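Hi U.,

Before I forget, here's the chain from the pilot set. I'm dumping it here mostly so it's searchable later in email.
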Amino acid sequence: MSRSVVRLAVIMMVAAAAVAGAQVADGPEWGGSWQSGPATTFSQALSRFDGAYDPGTGLVYFLGGRLADNNTDGSILTFDPATGTYADTGLDMPTPISNYTISPLTDATGFGLYVFCGRDAAGGQMLGVQVFYPATGTAVQLPAADNFPGALTCTSGMNVVLDNKVYVAGGLDTVVSPYNAVQTWVFDPMAASGSRWTRLAAADLAQGRAYIMGAAVDGKIYAIGGAWYDGSTLTNVTTVEVLDPAAATPSWNDAAVADLPEQCSSSRAWGFDTGSLYIDPTDSTPLAGKIISGCGFWSTAVASVYAYTVATNSWEVFPPFNTARRDQAGELMPIAGEEALWVWGGYDGTSVNTTTVEYYGLALVPVELQSFGVE
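Structure:
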């Protein structure tokens, strides 16, 4: 047997052992834990907002949100992960909103951070589409022809980016009955103005709701939890549905995916394709083919976080946040050597805006196990 074949066999055995060990470790306990990050230094603590990382500038951008005094602010703020510092760009979104998710997309102008609908400063529900371009520091509101065309607003609805399109499902209008949106729409930033929205007519949610955690794995979209409004209060749900956009007639499937272990809403989720190289840094549990989702919960925030494995259609407990929170910003930071899941602010367990920040460090499968070339 040649040295190259022997070397290949040994590497494959090591890889197999690593995977087997990770599978054993992939039980109800993960080895890592959430660590405290630099607290936000905004003029007021924010909630009902989101953050997105721009690899071009190396910054995380926050496009305003709900202030501690319950007003809505449109200031464009940043976090520099290299220095751990926050800054106000001095720029503002055209229309200040809260209750939004940032969707990073590429359009004819370049890389932009899109937000859809939202709650304005007066508490009204918006239908507009806004975008901030980090490379030029430009914030614009798209023409009215590109407003969300659904039966209800998409405020607090699920936003998931897949193949440079945004899938928007659900939403909440506390004034207009039936309050809870069920429709699913797709926004294409490369389409001509006035034709960017397409409804998936057969893809109404099984249960109308908002504050849904959304994630994509291997081309399928998962609508996780959420809350529905009855005219006076919100009720959290355990419902999880999956959508295959590549199907001949895309529709949400509730029966095909296990529900959450507890009622959850108003948090953030991250999906990892089966080809992902991310692993838990402590016990090497692979994140490939999994979703990590906060639980949130309205109105008293919880610290619970859960992990879903697509292959086994099962949820398990993930290390909880150090601070119970809901309506926080969240992002996967893919910075070499410092990969991590991050959450900023939101409401804490006393329903007060918090300045606390946490991150869960990730690692990558060792380079020598990522490929098996023969000399």
